[in-house]
Write a structure and sequence with these properties.
Elements: E1 3-7, H1 12-21, E2 26-31, E3 38-39, H2 45-54, E4 60-63, H3 78-106, E5 109-113, H4 126-146, E6 152-158, E7 160-161, H5 165-178, H6 182-189, E8 195-196, H7 198-209, H8 212-216, E9 222-225
Parallel strand pairs: 1-2, 1-4, 2-3, 4-5, 5-6, 6-9, 7-8
């Protein structure tokens, strides 16, 4: 089976994604807190180099590692900004840069897991929104730059994934604040904050990657899911 590397594979969405992809690939979970898979920091170039030593041939790279924190603009520190950009943007860039020789050899595919917030602003999430917009541009530039090498690059941009840990925490806080059940809150906010199930996003991505004819046609595209 071809090897698929998934960053952030220990998170709520990452776990779903690893499970779905494992039906089609030999999946390697890459996470700073991984108990199973490869424990490394995607922001550390020395760590990333270990991948090249362990896996001489890679077909798929999925950049799903992400950090999110909610704060009004006046409370966003420079350290918080740097921490989020370090993982969401720098980590994506470094993984692509270091895996590029392997992906050229395999004529592989890169998937960047973005967010609807890259094009749809979310209050109290400036840093996250901006980082995901940057990730979308990484996808578009790399799709053109790598095309002569037979590498496909596309992104998937889901709405708020209601079955992930971070979203459940946010919904819980908002429901208590507004004195609404989570169900009533989602109904009230669906126009402002569209949502989708992470399991559905993982399933769609696994389906796309299981068929080379499908994903080759998506080069340079950002696949929106659950948004407008």
């Amino acid at each position: 089976m071809d090897i698929a590397l998934v960053t952030g594979g220990s998170g709520s969405f990452g776990t779903l994604l690893v499970d779905k992809l494992s039906r089609h690939f030999e999946v390697v979970n890459i996470d700073v807190s991984a108990s199973a898979g490869l424990k490394l920091d995607v922001t550390n170039e020395a760590d990333i180099d270990t991948i090249l030593q362990k896996y001489p041939r890679v077909k798929v790279l999925v950049n799903a590692a992400a950090v999110i924190k909610y704060n009004p603009i006046e409370r966003i520190s420079a350290a918080e900004w740097d921490a989020i950009f370090s993982v969401n943007v720098k980590g994506t860039f470094l993984m692509i840069k270091h895996l590029l020789p392997r992906l050229k050899e395999s004529r592989g595919v890169i998937v960047n897991v973005s967010s609807i917030t890259g094009r749809m602003p979310m209050v109290n999430a400036l840093t996250y929104c901006t980082s995901k917009a940057a990730m979308d541009m990484i996808t578009r530039v790399c799709s053109r730059e790598f095309r002569p090498h037979g590498i496909t690059v596309f992104g998937i941009s889901p709405a708020m994934m209601i079955d992930t840990e971070n979203t459940q925490k946010k919904l819980g806080s908002l429901s208590r604040l507004k004195r609404l059940s989570v169900e009533d809150l989602l109904e009230q906010e669906k126009e402002t904050y569209p949502y989708v199930r992470g399991e559905s996003v993982a399933g769609l991505l696994a389906y796309i990657l299981s068929d080379e004819k499908i994903y080759r046609d998506l080069n340079g595209q950002i696949v929106n899911m659950g948004g407008y």
